[in-house]
Here is the input.
Amino acid sequence: MAIKTEPLVVNIGPQHPSTHGVFRMRVTLDGELITDAEMVIGYLHRSMEKLAEERTWTQNIPFTDRMDYLAAMTGNFAYCITVEKLAGIEVPERAEYLRVIFAELQRIASHAMANGTFVNDCGAWQTPLFYMFREREKILDLFEMTCGARLTLNYMRIGGVAFDIPDEFLPQLQLLVDELPDRFDEYDQLLVDNEILLMRSRDIGIISAEDAMNASLSGPMLRGSGVAWDVRKGDPYGVYDRFDFEIPVGHTGDCFDRFMVRMAEVRQSLSIIKQAMEQLPPGNHCAEVPLNFRPPEGEIYCRIESPKGELGYYLISDGSPFPFRFHVRSPSLINLSALKEMVVGQTVADAIVTLGSIDINVGEVDR
Amino acid sequence: MSLLANWYDFRDLGNPVARLIEALQDAGLSGGWIYAISGLLGAIGILSFVGVAAVINIWIERRLIGRIQVRRGPNRVGPFGLLQPVADAIKLIQKEALQPDNADGIMFTLAPIVIFIPAILAFSVLPWGEHMVLADLNVGVLFLLALSSTTTIIIFMAGYASNNKYAILGSMRVIAMLISYELPVVLALLGVVLFAGTMSLTGIVSFQETYWSWLIFFQPLAFLIFLLGSTAELNRTPADIAEAESEIVAGFHIEYSGMKFGLFYAVELVNTVAVSAIIASLFFGGWWTYGLEEFIPGWILFIGKIYSIYFIFIWFRGTLPRFRVDQLMAFAWKVLLPLALINAMMVALEIFIWTEYEISAGIVLPIFAVVNFALAGVLIVGFGRVMSRTMERFPKLPRLVKDIDVPLPEPSTA
Here is the structure.
């Protein structure tokens, strides 16, 4: 008698500890091996792009906080820079530098979170996550000091930033900038030379440079695959052309490379922050923009390098106080699109690690 | 009095109990009565230790993990949060113990209860002090190994009865892991048993006492293999693949709620204590601590040793990521099993030399210690070299690029 076997279909998510929100993966298993996977998104859809069409240009800024809620600053930044370009608003020098400082702080916070949860997905019992939270907490303290909020910041405005930094901000930031490299060296000791972490993430979830480009991936996903592309260098926005930094690039495009690229980017961000602190000019922090302003008719796409990749806003104005079309090119969604290619043929455990290494944020995937 | 000289020593049941038994003897009770009373007292003692340990370990584990994770851990209920496990238990008892519609009701209910039996039974053969053992089995080590296999079957029972896909995945992992890890663990203990020349735990402790040395000094390799193998058997990080929280959510006990879940949670801690106690007896002299037991009761020293080893398990849990299933199997078959075989061979050779040439222990034992430590060092370093991934194709650190450099793909001709 032949043994009859049938494939096991398992729902991973939407409620699962490692799907980073309410992402759902419907996998077909042969033992532990994944033979087929279906990605289901949309559980966190809030219709933001449509809602934004009924609010004024300034009122839309809080929406950008709530898309990638782990990197609200860069969301603000991308939207404001797009509207400014559309309306041709000149941003004061000081505001540009403050934006750079906050965007890079947000990048460190987001990468800390990404790497912490990644190691958590590898099965470390939350210890690296808590260490990363500790660093992120200090950055959130700086945000709170400046704009009163910690997560959904709503700090940037069209034409600059909402508030100038308080007097005690720069000394605190200096302390943080001095302290973080040591801390991250410590995490390198704990994690990078860890044989189990290497076993779990090396040669897992490989995506080649060509595939990564064809899938339009961006951010650490693309750089992990060995493509040196960074919007901050390739298409500089704001004052990024004035800073000296390097792009960390991985070797094979596996999960470990993406992890290491994020670790290295934290150090590059710190170097940018240091340079921005030295160059920070005095002056006004926000240009005079009427609250109910109407940008000229036209359409525009503008992109920045958010922690998760290339975050772009495509806006159409019909000359009214509301945007006619508000579209977001969210890096999480597009990076996630490559997941199926990466997980089919791997085990469940590897699929979780691969998903963790993509660093999605379901708020940004579903919008 | 003749009964006393038999393989059951009535006074084995504990030094505080021994006084009582003497009193009973003076009162003129017959041997059978004393036997029954002492057995009962021993069982009560062990059960109360297990009960207290299960409760206190929740607190210890959570506080220590909290410490490792730069946070405080439970500190609200009672002094230092000591009553937190009690509060948890009260909460769990109030919860409804749900049962899935298609579950196998009897097995589903039975599993969390039955799983306690091997955990408690393991304590019965452990010597808590001089003449302080409930059942001095002459095959104690074999008994412990048999018990550790039983746990796995019960875990499979729980996972199978739940009729849940995650649970069945977890149970299948447990079975695979059992087959792999029984072998190195048994072979590691074989080294110990060969060296001590007895399978009785009392015998192994008295061997250590006789030759004035803990067995860890003669069997470092067996200790490491047993420690790593038992983390896998206990389902603890880095080998907690059966309940792998980030992959299969809670594995075999995903469908359990209320106090049924609480029992699984508690039994995991009791099992850890049991394994720590086995390690303490086999490798660290049990209650015997180089004469210190003259001043401090042996069972207190024994509990101290148990918790020192338990700390290592907590430390593992707070530090290491988890293996993948196949990696865990590969680790057992490719690393632990050969090491255990080499260790058993080495011990056999040493014992042969010792008995055949009748060299005095004072000369031969220090040599064995040095040889075994050297062997352990060489093997671990050698296996580490072979198995490690340091000889990688690519460096770990990403390369740093100054400028963007995007190689464009070839335009397709098709």
Q: What stands out?
A: The first strand of chain A starts at residue 8 and ends at 12. Residues 244 and 296 of chain A are 35 Å apart (CA to CA). Chain A has one domain: 44-360.
